[in-house]
Fold this protein.
Amino acid sequence: MSTTLISLNSKAVKFTSTPKNMLINGQWVEAASGKRFETMNPANGEVITSVPEGDKEDINRAVAAARIAFDEGPWPKMKPAERAKLLFKFADLIEENAEELSHLETLDNGAPVNFTAGMASSAAENIRYHAGWATKITGETIPVSVPGNIFNYTRREPIGVCGQIIPWNAPLLMAVWKLAAPLSVGNTVVLKPAENTPLTALRLGELIQEAGFPDGVVNIVTGFGQTAGAALTAHPDVDKIAFTGSTAVGKQIMQAGAVNVKKVSLELGGKSAHIIFADADYDVALRNAANAIFMNSGQVCVAGSRLFVEKKIYDRFMSDLSEYTKNYRVGDGFDRSTVLGPLISEKQKNRVLNYLDIGQREGAELLVGGNTTASDLAKGHYVKPTVLANVTNDMRIAQEEIFGPVVSAMPFDDIDEVIKLANKTDYGLGGGICTTDVRKAHKVAHAMKTGNVWVNTYSLLDPASPFGGYKQSGIGRENGSASIDMYTEIKNVWINLD
Ligand code: NAP
Ligand code: MG
């Protein structure tokens, strides 16, 4: 396969040409230990640059800076319009540097440039949406019935220092989700990006400084989950933890947060059901079924990884889905024709391939996909988009999150059966429905025990729309007015007017 790679944006070349430092209290610093680690390009395994290996001591420094910025600094007391202005400036800077950010993301995470360009533009919009909230956060006056002449009202106040931990699958957008909402209401932040993808978070740190945020309001500590992440979660001066990542780590974070009863919000894994009814617009359903799982090479928490197809059309649908899937172009994210980039790491690739073995041993049939064979893909962590048929909902490949380009497909007979099957999972993040029957669409949407449902479309996101999970897919909602609830405390004030 011959490829023509677009050339790396010149600012991204410059950014990656030197070892990077991390941001604590407005300074770009090394780890206290002096240790560093390298970040790799998953398309070819080459080292991009190195970043500090922050650990407990660095987290202590960053939390101290965020604490002082919150308790004594101007940020939480700043007029809301002034805070909004800084956030709008930050969004403008993201837009001005969008190509650089997109290229850094593709370099570090492997996703195709068209996808990462979309992420950069969503990032700017997310900040603008939350900047708008800064001036619109109000309390209530409450008509209490207790005796006396009482004036009772509420205020919404920032929580304090927020420890924000993010995964590698959409690092730029996840960083912004963990910055825009808490900052809009006056919190300060310590952000820990994933060890596999630290670069765009660090570039955002530079833009934060360029926008003029006070020192210590945003601190970014690069490092490993078991050390830096765990230290942040357990730190007694951190008031809230917001985490996006796996359910297994989410459970540890809840336990660690108990030390000082931190407010904890979690966006965790998923095993989302995508239900195709026989009355669906066939071509739309086919396209949606494929895109729902293969976008970002399946490394998407809401990926439509369990595909339920009504029996009447199952055989034809599986055959057409296999053809459709074969045509996806797998390759380097800097090739404009690439639709599926590499997986993030060798470890993730092996995990996905292991699931293909498990699935086939369980009795599933591999219709298309599997390991890559092309020699020009040999150095990257590529897996072909894969369709597994003859799956039953109790198989491991139907219950466990694979987090790769693998769909597990099952036939169903009727609406009641498919609702039961769809809900038979520990997860509850996303769900999809393809039908032209509006009653069926609403009935199934209401019955799905998931935080997000898409009908005749899939995985749309908007900063105004709440996002999060039922069951073991999480606690809390990001975006929309829900994110303001998540990052504020409610204070109730009683005044005796007599
Ligand atoms: P992960 O292993 O849970 O890691 C997520 C983040 O937590 C990383 O920054 C990681 O650091 C850190 N971490 C690991 N162990 C920790 C600990 N003991 N204490 C504190 N922090 C710790 O998840 P991942 O493999 O990076 O990401 C894939 C998972 O994220 C999938 O399950 C996916 O569904 C989920 N996800 C969910 C959403 C959502 O919104 N619901 C969105 C995207 C992804 P290291 O990088 O050093 O490991
Ligand atoms: Mg990397």
Q: What stands out?
A: The chain has two domains: 10-268+473-493, 273-462. The CA atoms of residues 65 and 153 lie 32 Å apart. The domain at 273-462 is CATH 3.40.309.10 (Aldehyde Dehydrogenase; Chain A, domain 2). Residues 113-134 form the longest helix (22 residues).
